[in-house]
Amino acid sequence: MTVPALFYFDNLRVNAERRGTGRRRLRMKKWIGLCLLLISACLTGHAQDVRVIHVDEPGTLAEKIAEIESLNPDETVKITGELYNSDFKAFQKWKGYSFALDLSDAVIDTIPEKSFYGIDLKKILFPISLKRIEAHGFNSCVSLKNVDLSHCVDLVFIGTAAFGGCNFLQRIDVSTCIKLEYLGEYVFSGCTKLESIDLSNNLNLREIKDLSFYSNISLSEIKLPPFIEIIGKEAFAMCKFQYLEIPASIKKIKWHAFVASKLSIIKIDAVEPPLLLTTDDPFMKNDISLIVPMGSKSLYQLAPVWSKLDIREVGLCFIKVKNDGGGFVKIGEQTIQSGEISVPEAKDVQVSFIPDKGYRLIQVKLGTIDVTDQVEGDILTIPQIVENKELAVVFEKEIYSLKVSYNEGGEVKVNEQNITS
To answer: In whole angstroms, what is the distance from residue 97 CA to residue 115 CA?
Structure first.
């Protein structure tokens, strides 16, 4: 934006000099000076969007913050240097201000207990040195939307209710936190906007504690740690996801772990039924499908509580394709025009549509449901298929119109057809 503005006013100055009078030249210079001042002010304002505070000596952050009278709305504060636990008390001065905090270049081992409790943070970026986030560290940060842990390869501990009550939190990615081994009780409870979380890279995480995701009413997808052994009491109560895959390492599921949730299909990879510490869980009812490994159905049928569910062994599902021509359908490595293809049960299935030359895809129906709007780039993903499906596909020949205008004295022919008007 700056260069065109300077270029424009430089041209005006040249034109004024050519036209002549000293008065006009002086007036033009004033305009140039005013516009340069405005441009400078805009650039300065942009630079102030990020306020950098460097801590020369650990333990002195409070002195630095005391020098700042106020923060601009939605300002980003970047802290650099090494911080001690005592430094974090200084952030309480900024209660009532809305800001983002960048700690990515700071040297921090631990976020102490209640460091940012109730502070109006919008976003937080953590440093590579971080190892622990203590209890209630960011509890009730009601405006917090984004938590960036992408640098935290050494993070091992997130304490009780550390992000509890962050009811605007939409995204938290712990996939790079490969050493993470502890998530406390209530750790993400009440995060009502959180839609998904992937724990599949957290190989050292063996337990989902009690009430960890309690009342996360928007949580529609979760991937559990691959070596999880225990799912705590009411850990996923009132969550939105309908399908859950539980790894073979599971040993124990506590009381009301999924109560009042939307869960309708559970796939358990464990041959031996995990212990359910309840006999009257209102969630465990016979309209829930339980998919278990081949040869283990009889074991689950004999197990307390599990026996109440609709149990079947994992196997294959079939997708029947109906297509009257104009293209092909590819599922996995198989390409067909019409027919039936088998796919592994409880896995995502990717369907590709390949129109013939001169044709285009106009409709896809999965059973009786039109899913055309879910097709992106001629690809449809069917998530976690657990039953046979029928796929109806319609390709349509592309038709182009050609408008011809001509005078007398000849004829126009298009594809052997004479055009008369």
So the answer is: 15
pLDDT for position 270 = 96
| Three-class DSSP category at 184 | coil
Check: CB of residue 329 under 8 Å from CB of residue 391: yes
* Structure tokens belonging to residue 209: 């504690």
Stretches where the chain sits below pLDDT 70 are 1-48, 279-286, 420-421
3-state secondary structure of 320: strand
Reference 338, options 393, 398, 411, 283; nearest CA is: 393
The whole-angstrom separation of Cα 230 and Cα 247 is 11
Question: What pLDDT does residue 36 have?
Answer: 54
SS (H, E, C) 141-177: CCCCCEEECCCCCCCCEECCCCCCCCCCCCEEECCCC
The model carries a pTM of: 0.73
The alpha carbon of 258 is separated from its chain's Cα centroid by a whole number of angstroms, namely: 22
Q: Give the separation between CA 94 and CA 71, rounded to whole angstroms.
A: 8
pLDDT at 281: 65
What are 92's two structure tokens? Answer: 């309480």
Q: List C-alpha distances in Å: 84 to 58, 104, 138, 173, 211.
A: 6, 16, 17, 26, 31
What residues does 157 pair with on adjacent strands? 132, 182
pLDDT at position 404, please? 76
Cα–Cα distance measured from residue 53 to residue 208, given in angstroms and rounded to the nearest whole number: 37
Structure tokens at 235: 């850990």
DSSP-derived secondary structure for 19-68: H--HHHHHHHHHHHHHHHHHHHHHHHHHHTTEEEEEESSTT-HHHHHHT-
Strand, coil or helix: 356: coil
Quote the pLDDT of residue 279.
64
Amino acid at 183: L
Which residues on neighbouring strands pair with residue 74, listed in sequence order? none
Cβ distance 144 to 193 under 8 Å?
A: no
**Per 3-state DSSP, what percentage of the chain is helix, strand, and coil (rounded to 5)?**
15, 30, 50
Of residues 54, 52, 58, the one with CA closest to residue 78: 52
Residue 54: beta bridge partners?
80
Q: 10 Å Cβ neighbour count for 324?
A: 11
Structure confidence at residue 13 (pLDDT)? 42
